[in-house]
């Protein structure tokens, strides 16, 4: 595990003590190359990103730096260390992008496909919203309920594609397996459930404010 999130590293080490963690940042190419050369990984799973749509919209330069330049650094480090398979975690929002986050991930997919070769394979997976993951709407709403505040909903008509943590892990596992036998690059995704956000909010609380 390579991360710049000190708290996340500490929590991961407590939960999975056998997992070795390193402090690193995808924007630091030299550090990435040194770590990849040291670790000599068989598979790299690249999930680092500026993921929040509103933050990317308000900070497009940072979105480009992290999601595009950072991804290119991962590619360069994988090629330098001759990593057999590198999996890039993308998003359903890259399918037909209409925001900065979606566009940045679409470009990430393009550069992964561009650098694919039989010696160092680059493939992608497309995630939807991972239910109950860090920074997602479910823990945010649960926290609001715990504070006895109403849940904030953009629109009662809003739907989101969602899948479980287990499904997301299996998608990456499948991508690694397919990459071993396939010669061409690919973007792997699942058929996912569409969830109405008002219906989801009602499961958590009956106090809901539509904020627009």
In words, what does this structure look like?
The chain is α/β, with parallel strands linked by helices and 212 residues long. Helices cover 47% and strands 19% of the residues. The protein contains 8 helices and 11 strands. It has helices at residues 6-15, 29-39, 53-58, 60-80, 100-115, 137-146, 165-181, 197-204, and strands at 2-3, 22-23, 43-46, 85-91, 121-127, 129-130, 151-153, 159-163, 187-188, 193-196, 208-210. The protein has a 4-stranded parallel β-sheet, sandwiched between helices. It has a 3-stranded mixed β-sheet with strand order 6-8-10. Helix 1 (6-15) links the parallel strand 1 and strand 2. Helix 2 (29-39) runs parallel beside helix 4 (60-80) and helix 4 (60-80) packs parallel to helix 5. The radius of gyration is 18 Å and the shape is globular. The N and C termini lie far apart (38 Å). The mean pLDDT is 91.
List the helices and strands and how they pair.
Elements: E1 2-3, H1 6-15, E2 22-23, H2 29-39, E3 43-46, H3 53-58, H4 60-80, E4 85-91, H5 100-115, E5 121-127, E6 129-130, H6 137-146, E7 151-153, E8 159-163, H7 165-181, E9 187-188, E10 193-196, H8 197-204, E11 208-210
Parallel strand pairs: 1-2, 3-4, 4-5, 5-9, 6-8, 7-11
Antiparallel strand pairs: 8-10
Helix pairs in contact: 2-4, 4-5
């Amino acid at each position: 595990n390579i991360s710049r999130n000190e708290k996340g590293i500490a929590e991961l080490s407590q939960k999975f003590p056998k997992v070795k963690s390193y402090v690193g940042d995808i924007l630091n190419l030299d550090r990435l190359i040194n770590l990849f050369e040291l670790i000599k990984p068989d598979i790299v799973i690249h999930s680092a990103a500026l993921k929040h749509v509103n933050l990317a919209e308000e900070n497009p330069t940072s979105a480009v730096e992290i999601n595009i330049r950072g991804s290119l650094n991962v590619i360069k480090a994988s090629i330098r260390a001759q990593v057999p398979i590198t999996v890039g975690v993308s998003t359903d929002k890259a399918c037909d992008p209409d925001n900065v986050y979606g566009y940045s991930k679409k470009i990430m997919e393009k550069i992964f496909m561009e650098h694919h070769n039989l010696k160092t394979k680059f493939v992608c997976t497309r995630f939807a919203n991972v239910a109950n993951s860090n920074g997602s709407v479910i823990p945010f709403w649960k926290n609001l309920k715990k504070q006895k505040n109403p849940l904030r909903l953009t629109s009662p008509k809003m739907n989101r594609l969602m899948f479980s943590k287990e499904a997301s892990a299996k998608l990456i596992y499948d991508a690694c397996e397919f990459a071993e036998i396939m010669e061409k690059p690919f973007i792997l995704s699942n058929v996912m459930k569409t969830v109405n956000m008002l219906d989801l909010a009602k499961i958590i609380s009956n106090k809901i404010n539509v904020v627009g």
